[in-house]
Amino acid sequence: MTAGIRFRSLLSFILVIASVATITVLQRPEKARAQTRSNADGLTRPLAKGLDQAIVNSALQSIEKGREAFRFDTFGDEAFWGDTLNLDATIAGAANGGIGPGLTPKQALGLGLKVDVEALPAALKDQLRAGTVNLDDPATTVALLQLNSVVGVKGFFTNGALSSVGIQCALCHSTVNDSFAPGIGSRLDGWANRDLNVGAIVAFAPDLSAFATLLGTTQDTVRQVLNSWGPGKFDAELALDGKAFRPDGKTAATLIPPAFGLAGVNLHTWTGWGSVTHWNAFVATLEMHGKGTFFDPRLNDAAKFPIAAANGFGNVRTTPDLITRKLADLHFYQLAIPSPAAPNGTFNVPAANRGRGLFAGKAACAACHVPPLFTEPGWNMHTPDEVGIDDFQAKRSPDERYRTSPLKGLWTHTKGGFYHDGRFATLLDVVNHYDAVKGLELTEAEKQDLVEYLKSL
Ligand code: HEC
Ligand code: HEC
């Protein structure tokens, strides 16, 4: 598998070099055109050479390496998910050397796990089409893991048996396009997997004592909390402050946001914890439990983050460091993922055009969601009052504010609702909320136009 990826990376690198060479050769005879080349955007620029070419090459290599890390790196976290929680044992089941009934492919798909069709051999695809693959047998799940086809989950094998399991960024921040079957298709990196029931998957592990000890509670309570999250949600702050539920009794978990269209955006996460790379280091060490370095003395605030402060999460140094040297490429890759354009026919064009006018005009949305970033250039944060919501989640973060969500690609994550906790089920609910708290006095038709515009972004 890894050899295949290396080969593909090498191949695309060779193709890039080859096409640059071809352009140079083709254009040599004509002096006027020799120094220029047309780009995908239709603009003509001087052909890169010398340092310019070195920068382009370095960028392409960084994107390749970052993609590899985003999709396939566990950062050594199998020591936690496999060796400590023993998740591999309950996935395999007793019949395959583990414990219990095991996890069938049907159950795995039901939990929102996705299968990368490009990792499946042709023969297996034929069998799947013919319906001769047993999707009720955990042995099939183990085989899919061995093919490295389960998005975001890596199986480790000893003498052909599943011996450990690790997780990758792609688990939560990639989905598939369902091109083969529901849950089976080509990867869509950066898309939030709003089908994924992270809590139920973690709760499937037989040994949750690591979480129970950390949170000072019982494994039963941990399991109850994990099962309260539901699909598309994860609680990145639970291991810092131990708050599992909001004052109204609902889960404290937040929606998985997309990881595309992030370039130009200053602060990230719902509550603006930091830059992309700050959060990548945070997640890889503290949430995925990979091996690496993370420094953020804001976590030493024992009143706000009692668990983080007591456990020294503000200054983590695990050796060997498998994370730090990958952060630059990982950062580069995420910044390179464009927001996917809304497909034709999924919104009403004239209405969206009217909505654009309202967004910048009467509804004043663009004051915060500044096009084309749709967040503020600068310190893109607001108090809970400014957006008319409670401060529970904001208070669980260093700056106690909400970050202005960049709105591009909203159409890819309508499942689970909008705002950090999905409190607004539809975009119309969002618009109605602003209409009420900001006293916008929008007509029903204007609200619909705004919704069509939001769908078009
Ligand atoms: C278990 C699910 C999960 C995994 C695994 C995960 N994330 Fe996230 N990610 C989330 C959630 C949930 C948030 C929102 C956290 C918050 O606001 O408190 C988030 C936030 C982000 C953001 C901020 C996006 C924005 O809106 O600005 C980025 C970037 C990101 N993750 C990248 C990564 C990378 C890179 C990895 C791997 C190193 C990773 N994530 C692993 C669930 C996950
Ligand atoms: C005062 C600044 C501000 C203004 C004005 C504003 N927003 Fe927002 N918007 C935010 C913030 C902050 C969030 C994130 C809320 C959260 O995390 O719960 C947000 C979130 C959203 C979301 C949810 C995004 C997601 O990923 O779930 C949508 C949709 C949205 N705004 C649309 C609008 C529209 C439409 C208007 C105009 C009617 C508007 N906003 C006006 C600051 C603003």
Topology, element by element:
Elements: H1 2-27, H2 31-34, E1 36-38, E2 44-46, H3 51-72, H4 78-81, H5 87-92, H6 105-110, E3 115-116, H7 122-130, H8 138-146, E4 153-158, E5 161-167, H9 170-173, E6 174-176, E7 184-185, E8 187-189, H10 198-203, H11 209-215, H12 219-228, E9 233-234, H13 238-241, E10 254-255, H14 276-287, E11 293-295, H15 306-310, E12 315-317, H16 327-336, H17 349-360, E13 381-382, E14 402-403, H18 427-438, H19 444-456
Parallel strand pairs: 3-7
Antiparallel strand pairs: 1-2, 4-5, 6-8, 9-10, 11-12, 13-14
Helix pairs in contact: 3-16, 14-16, 17-19, 18-19
The site of one heme C has 27 residues, from helix 9, helix 14 and helix 16.
Name the average pLDDT: 92
As laid out across the biggest beta sheet, the strand order is: 1-2
What is the strand content? 5-15%
Largest sheet features: 2 strands, antiparallel
Shape: globular
How big is the Rg? 24 Å
The structural class is mainly alpha
Residue runs with pLDDT of under 50 for 5 or more positions = 1-5, 13-18, 20-35
Note down, in words, how this protein is organized.
The protein has 457 residues and is mostly helical. Among the domains are: 2-70, no CATH class; 78-209, no CATH class; 349-456, Cytochrome c-like domain (Cytochrome Bc1 Complex, Chain D, domain 2, Orthogonal Bundle), CATH 1.10.760. It is built from 19 helices and 14 strands. It has a two-stranded antiparallel sheet. A two-stranded parallel ribbon has the order 3-7. Strands 4-5 form a two-stranded antiparallel ribbon. Strand 1 (36-38) and strand 2 (44-46) form a beta hairpin. Helix 17 (349-360) packs across helix 19 and helix 18 (427-438) packs across helix 19 (444-456). The longest helix has 26 residues, at 2-27.
